[in-house]
Specification:
- The protein is mostly helical.
- It has one domain.
- The chain contains eight helices and no strands.
Length: 139
C-alpha cells in the first residue's frame, strides 16, 4: 500500500496517507473541486470523470457555490486514484494503464475496467483482476 499511498498523496498534494484510517480522514474532510482538474491532468477524460466521479452539472454547482465534494464523491476520487495507481504498477506507465482501463475486457463481461469504478464492489473486482494480471494469471 505504501507506493499507492505515496502516489495518492502526491497526486492530491497532501501528506501520503499511511493507513486506511488516514485515507478515510481525507475522504471525510471532503476534497475541493480543483481535485477534478488534477484527474484530468493525469489523463482521465471529462466523460470518464463525469461518469465515474461526479456529473458535470453537479460539479458546476459545487464550483459556483464554492462547496467541497461530498464524502461519496471524495470516496470515488480516492477509488479512481487507487485503481489508477495499481494499474500503473502493473503496466509500468500511465499511458498503458489508461489504455487497459478503457479497453473492454471479457473477464468483466466485456465492460471496461474504468466503467466499474462507479461502485466500491466494481473497483474491488478491477483491483483483483489487476492482482491476477500482476501475478501472471491473465493478460
Amino acid at each position: 500500500m505504501y507506493s499507492a499511498s505515496a502516489q495518492i498523496g502526491n497526486w492530491l498534494g497532501v501528506e501520503p496517507p499511511m493507513t486506511e484510517t488516514a485515507v478515510l480522514g481525507i475522504i471525510e474532510r471532503q476534497l475541493e473541486p480543483p481535485v477534478i482538474q488534477r484527474l484530468l491532468d493525469m489523463g482521465l477524460s471529462r466523460d470518464e470523470v463525469h461518469s465515474v466521479i461526479i456529473p458535470a452539472r453537479t460539479l458546476q454547482h459545487r464550483r459556483s457555490r464554492r462547496e467541497r465534494l461530498t464524502v461519496e464523491e471524495s470516496d470515488r476520487v480516492i477509488r479512481a486514484l487507487r485503481v489508477l495507481s495499481a494499474a500503473e504498477g502493473v503496466y509500468e506507465s500511465r499511458e498503458r494503464a489508461l489504455e487497459w482501463l478503457r479497453r473492454t475486457n471479457p473477464r468483466l463481461e466485456n465492460r471496461s475496467p474504468i466503467s466499474l469504478l462507479k461502485t466500491d464492489t466494481g473497483a474491488r473486482i478491477v483491483e483483483e483482476l489487476l492482482g491476477q494480471i500482476d501475478e501472471g494469471y491473465f493478460i
